[in-house]
Amino acid sequence: MWVGRNLAVTLLPIRYFCREPLFALKWITLISVLAFSSLLPFEVTYVSANEALSFSFNLNMLMDDWLAIYIQPPVKDLKVDCNSTMRGGFRVSFSSEEIYMQQPASAVYLQPRSKGTYSILVSFTANFTWSATVGVYTFNREFYGRAMPVANTPSGYFVIFPKIEGGSEGNSSRSYKINIFLSSYEIASSDVFSIKLPTPVNMSLFILASAALTYVNVFLVVDLYFKSKIEGISKVRLILIGLSILASLLILHLFYGAISGGEAYA
Fold first, then answer.
1. Are the beta carbons of 187 and 194 closer than 8 angstroms?
2. Neighbours of 141 (CB within 10 A)
3. DSSP per-residue codes, 181-250
4. pLDDT band per the 50, 70, 90 thresholds, residue 71
5. Predicted pLDDT at 23
6. First to last CA, the chain
7. 90, 82 in Cβ contact below 8 A?
8. Tens digits of per-residue pLDDT, 82-101?
9. Which residues contact 143 (CB under 8 A, 6 or more apart)?
10. For residue range 108-133, what is the model confidence (pLDDT) as tens digits?
């Protein structure tokens, strides 16, 4: 699930841009960070109670793709529970120990077989620090955008989401839970040859980011024009403005590529 955040852009007085182009570049960097932070496919929350540490997140994926969770080092008492009200069900498999990235790991796999919502609970015990790699095996990379790293595998693309880390060293084991709230989608057959557009929310974020970056670059160009009438054009300033414009175009290109694709699925 794309987790959107409010992209608040404060318009700055012209004098700040006139004084220092590097100040404008810092704002461009800040805007790009805010824009891409809104594209994280899930947001992990941590809840600690009664010796059990729980991690929860929401995730969108295509039906028939495989959700994979690799926990390293391997953990004990691994259990998986999945509930769904949709027809067609799902496939689940898990292993206390197998090899992932040439290292032993506990693994959980789930494949939604129909469009709908699923609630998945992965529980285990450990007395050491651990990390969980969450990802999706798919042949349709575009659905997940291009903000996440992707590995090519014999099973298709493996879209990798941010890791979940937990645990602590100790003599006694603690209980851990990973709650996954999953929504699965199917490709609409009528949209196979259509142009994929961002969702309305993501398009609003794109418009805000475009307006903010345009504001910064317009004032840099205006400032350059008036200063050239008085004191000439500094090569350093000219290069910085050129880099600013190129960086803005690159950011918008990557941003649009990352958010596009949502409307082609139902």
1. no
2. 17
3. EEEEE-B-GGGTTSPP---HHHHHHHHHHHHHHHHHHHHHHHHHHHHHHHT---HHHHHHHHHHHHHHHH
4. very high
5. 54
6. 14
7. yes
8. 888 766 678 889 999 999 98
9. 61, 62, 185, 261, 265
10. 999 998 888 889 999 999 999 999 99
Could you tell me which residues are beta bridge partners of residue 59?
Answer: 182
Domain residue spans in the chain? 14-38+197-264, 45-189
Single-letter amino acid code for the residue at 177: K
Question: Would you say 17 and 224 are in contact if contact means Cβ atoms under 8 Å apart?
Answer: no
Tokens of 64: 């028939």
Whole-number Å distance between alpha carbons of 41 and 246: 27
User: How far, rounded to the nearest angstrom, does the alpha carbon of residue 250 sit from its chain's CA centroid?
Assistant: 18
Q: Which amino acid is at 49?
A: A
Token output for 266: 């139902």
Long-range Cβ contacts of 18-22 (<8 Å, 24+ apart): 18/219, 18/223, 18/227, 21/220, 21/237, 21/240, 21/241, 21/244, 22/240
3-state class of 15 per DSSP?
helix
Q: Is 75 exposed, middle or buried (0-12, 13-18, 19+ CB in 10 A)?
A: buried
User: How many CB atoms are closer than 10 A to CB 164?
Assistant: 19
CA atoms of 42 and 40, how far apart (whole Å): 5
- Give me the numbers of helices (H) and strands (E) for the chain, helices first please: 4, 12
110: left (phi over 0), alpha (psi -120 to 50) or beta: beta
| Predicted local distance difference test score (pLDDT) of residue 228 | 76
What number of other Cβ atoms are within 10 A of residue 177's Cβ?
15
pLDDT computed for residue 190 by the predictor = 44
